[in-house]
Amino acid sequence: MDFGQSTQKYLYIPEPHNDFIFAVLAEELGFLGCIGVILLFAIFVWRGVLIAMKAPDMFGSLIAVGITSLIGLQAIINIGVVTSSIPNTGMPLPFFSYGGTSLIILLCCVGVLLNISRHSKKI
């Protein structure tokens, strides 16, 4: 199957471009693609915690933990909804789901996180 040729997005799952994008991603990329996406989110959370630990002040540390937990929990909840582990919540998968407002807010949050990283203590 070629990339972009999944059949589940046609009337089989509700909102395949928003809430259930991970199901389409799983069909197109397979098990290794799903593991890769989950690993990328895990690396993002790990790096966010490191940024929070090296932040120059308590405010930066709290902001970094908040942004990291926002994105990490949003990914966990979306993947849990797609795998039917938890009830449907309507939460998009960060950086993947269709929707301009969510993407703009997430990119602004990552920009703040990068700014905290830029001014962090070098250990």
Major beta sheet, specifics? none
β-sheet strand percentage: under 5%
Overall 3D shape: elongated
Order of helices and strands: HHH
Describe the structure.
With 123 residues, the protein is mostly helical. It has helices spanning 21-53, 58-82, 100-118. α1 packs antiparallel against α2 (58-82) and α2 runs antiparallel to α3. The mean pLDDT is 87.
Keywords:
123 residues; mainly alpha; 3 helices
Briefly say what this structure is:
This protein is an all-alpha fold.
List the helices and strands and how they pair.
Layout lengths: L20 H33 L4 H25 L17 H19 L5
